[in-house]
Known about the structure:
The protein has seven helices and twelve strands. The protein is α+β, with helices and mostly antiparallel strands.
Amino acid sequence: MTLVAQNVVVRQLTENAELLATQRLYESIWRPTGENGAPPVNAELLRAMAKAGSYVAGAFDGDDLVGACIGFCSPPAASALHSHIAGVAAGMRGRNVGYAMKLDQRTWALERGITEITWTFDPLVRRNAYFNLGKLAADAAEYLPDFYGHMDDDINGGSETDRLLIRWRIASPEVAAACEGRPKATSATGVIGLGISEDGLPVRGTWSAPTVLVAVPPDIETLRSTNPAAATEWRYAVRDVLGDLLASGARVTGFDRAGWYVVEREEAP
């Protein structure tokens, strides 16, 4: 049985009051800071996107907006949707709201003949890596260094905004199984290309094997506030190892819940 958020309804947003509520929700999640701080999207842009037929959806717990997901079609428009931003209210984490929104987005896309949904996420955020690669059975397609540039908000902490580009082939059997509550299982077996020291810092290993494991810290968001230098060290280490592996043609085959990207290389050097 598909596991979704209980008592949560996901639907398209069209009214100005709902779009303004989405802007405020995103402000509460990202918490923009500094002179240039701004919400990730504003109500006016959402209004235009909704009118143009883009994916603008919200998750409601009763009358309360507790999550929102925004996407727009990418060329060719008949086959791809780019999911630009999604967020869930802090008090609703762990209740499958994000999963429910992705199931709704997949249904919306399939009804329009779309076969692929893309989005980006910070590769250092362990829970998001498992959600995307395991729970949704999506693929990691490309490593994008400092993709958005400097961002003044509490989540990104002013650090460089590296991202992994995700491709979600929504009609594939593997994705269909994941959307029915059967996530993609991955076992962390292979040589360690990037590990974790006893004091929580990245340790570079070797790539001389067909399967390479790349670790990420347990909680990068807390680390950014408690030890910014360590967070920056993790950023560059994962960029150097995971980014270089993908650039050389290697493929991420999954993410182990213990905190490892599993990367397959075509052949050992």
